[in-house]
Amino acid sequence: MVEKLKTLATTLPNLKWFFEYPLADQTYFKVGGPADAYVAVKTMAELTQVLTAGRQLEVPMTIIGGASNVIVADAGVRGLVIHLTHDSVTPILDAHGKILGLRAGSGIKMAVLVAQMVKFGLTGLEYFLGVPGTLGGAIYNNAHYLSHLIGEHVSQVLVVDRKTGQETWLTQAECDFNYDHSRFQTSGEVIVEVEFKLQVGEPAASQALIKESIQYRAATQPLGEPSSGCIFQNAPNTEMLRQRFPQFAEQTHVPGGFLIDQAGLKGAHEGQIEVSHKHAAFMINKGHGTSADLQKLITKVKSSVKTQFGVDLQEEVFYLQ
Q1: Does domain 89-205 have CATH number 3.10.450.40?
Q2: In the chain, how many H helices and how many E strands?
Q3: Contact predicate 54/5, CB 8 Å
Q4: What is the DSSP string of 288-306?
Q5: In 3D, which of 283, 257, 256, 279 has the Cα closest to residue 269?
Q6: Are 83 and 35 in contact (CB under 8 A)?
Q7: Average of per-residue pLDDT values in the chain
Q8: Strand, helix or coil at 135?
Q9: Could you read off the pLDDT of 249-293 as tens digits, one per residue?
Q10: What's the Cα-to-Cα distance from 189 to each of 26, 175, 261, rounded to whole Å?
Q11: Cα(21)–Cα(159) distance, rounded to whole angstroms?
Q12: In CATH, which of 3.90.1150.10, 3.20.20.70, 3.40.50.720, 3.30.43.10 is domain 2-84?
């Protein structure tokens, strides 16, 4: 593997290559070991070159963006980690110059994307300013804020098939968006650009929505601590849950954090990984926590919630190794 990776780097000397690259500092959770090799790519041409060369050499390839919603194994990630940093933003105009939406590179940070949207006088994505990481990850996981899903605002997505190198624009329907789900979680396609259909807005109204979102997150989430956000999806409601928690009787899902809290798990820990006292769906790294500690705590929480409420919690984070 090492020789293949060195050959790959020699084949594409225009890019900056790193070996035994520490990934923990790249992730929001600050856990995990090194990548065998790491390279950042910004353009479609660079991405295509790396995918083609890596495929020819049969090198395992992992794509990352902001690394906000991933858990890297303590042993690290085998093969090549490709960090996609494409972060351009351009308005979409009709034949008369009227702005209809935005096209953005998947490597743009969500906060920057929302700021650019407001700058162009559009509205629709304000609630997603606080979503950590980059646009590609938000689309991959169909990021949500309360009942708002980012996929609802997508017009189409440009992807590259990592097996063939073919570029394709996918419609919103073809992206198969659902709660915490998109086709990209199983398709192997690399998200490169996203087009959003947005409405003309008022900057003052947009700033009010942004302020509301920021204040809500600050009041309910352990911001500023190493974390991947919510570890678990909300749980589909059941008859038992409706009887036990009538406040959710009319809802299709029960918040995962609520169930973890009711199970008495706030403050539970493995090593230096702890269930947040502020929001039980969050786990935080108190210092030198490991990926193994995190996975042990996830297993403990899932087991307790299953025992007490008959619910199988599902993670919304993704494991890299």
Answers
A1: no
A2: 9, 21
A3: no
A4: S--HHHHHHHHHHHHHHHH
A5: 283
A6: no
A7: 93
A8: helix
A9: 999 999 999 999 999 999 999 999 999 999 999 999 999 999 999
A10: 22, 11, 37
A11: 26
A12: 3.30.43.10
Structure tokens given for 115: 């700021």
d(CA 109, CA 123): 17
| Separation of alpha carbons 313 and 306, rounded Å | 8
Each residue of 7-64: pLDDT tens digit?
Answer: 989 999 999 999 999 999 899 999 999 999 999 999 999 999 999 999 999 999 999 9
pLDDT at 146 over 80: no
- 244: Cβ–Cβ under 8 A, 6 or more apart, which residues? 309
> 177 in helix, strand or coil?
coil
Encode 37-92 in three state secondary structure: EEEEECCHHHHHHHHHHHHHCCCCEEEECCCCCEEECCCCEEEEEEEECCCCEEEE
Structure tokens that stand for 170 in this block: 């996918």
